[in-house]
Amino acid sequence: MVEIRFLGHAAFEIKGKEKTILIDPFLTGNPSAAAKPEEFEKVDLILITHAHGDHLGDAVAIAQKTGAKIVAMYDIANYLVEGNAGITTIGMNYGPTEVDGVKIVQVPAWHSSSNGKYEIGTACGFIVELDGVNIYHAGDTYVFKDMELFAELYGIDVALLPIGGHFTMGPREAAKAVELLKPKYVVPMHYNTFPPIAKDPEEFKDLVGGKAQVVILKPGESFEL
């Protein structure tokens, strides 16, 4: 059994039988956050899709507390190690790897990646295989045709897709991404945190139709498969 808990914005906690993974743990300063950084006791891996503050978030603080390894684009991993004691980072680039028994594929995303002053690495998404379940976290991205390859190569069980527009796909584009990815389940994210990305997830659900089961989670809610 794998449990996926939505923590607000684009942050998720994914629990398997033995491993716990956080993705983009933006909690401090997140008005929709369903958890605080200090609440996490056991985290094995923290995956970071890009360097923007609303995705990098509390990764370093949680890693320092729990000993979790941070997996990120190579340049971001190096950036985090400098000046942050007590953390272990694993830098990679687009492609597959395995970290402590967890299969991870870093895939492209169409977005920028900076700390507000200069670019750090490039944006990505992740496909994670945990206990036989393939979960795709798109990060911040626009829809692109190569998403078909993700479906062909890996078979997506759950897609976590941004729908807020302005910085990412909106509902229409995200519905097209569902068509390309062919997931069994899709969870909308990256909407309603701030006014520019205000969206109704029911609009997205209507656009998806029967192409996948849309699971709309409020921050703090989970679903299992």
**CATH topology, anyone?**
Metallo-beta-lactamase, Chain A
Mean pLDDT: 97
| Alpha plus pi helix count | 6
- Classified in CATH, the superfamily is Ribonuclease Z/Hydroxyacylglutathione hydrolase-like
Helix content percent band: 10-25%
Pfam families: Lactamase_B_3
Family: Belongs to the UPF0173 family.
GO molecular function: hydrolase activity
Keywords: Hydrolase
Describe this entry's structure for a reader.
- The chain is an alpha/beta fold and 225 residues long.
- The protein has helices at residues 53-56, 59-66, 74-81, 147-154, 171-181, 201-208; strands at 3-8, 11-15, 20-23, 45-47, 69-73, 88-92, 95-99, 102-108, 124-130, 133-137, 158-162, 185-189, 213-214, 222-224.
- The chain has one domain (3-218): Metallo-beta-lactamase, Chain A (4-Layer Sandwich).
- It contains six helices and 14 strands.
- The strands form two sheets. A seven-stranded mixed β-sheet has the order 6-5-4-3-2-1-14, with helices on one face. The protein has a seven-stranded mixed β-sheet with strand order 7-8-9-10-11-12-13.
- The chain is globular.
- The model has no long low-confidence stretch (mean pLDDT 97).
Set down the secondary structure blueprint.
Layout: E1 3-8, E2 11-15, E3 20-23, E4 45-47, H1 53-56, H2 59-66, E5 69-73, H3 74-81, E6 88-92, E7 95-99, E8 102-108, E9 124-130, E10 133-137, H4 147-154, E11 158-162, H5 171-181, E12 185-189, H6 201-208, E13 213-214, E14 222-224
Parallel strand pairs: 3-4, 4-5, 5-6, 10-11, 11-12, 12-13
Antiparallel strand pairs: 1-2, 1-14, 2-3, 7-8, 8-9, 9-10
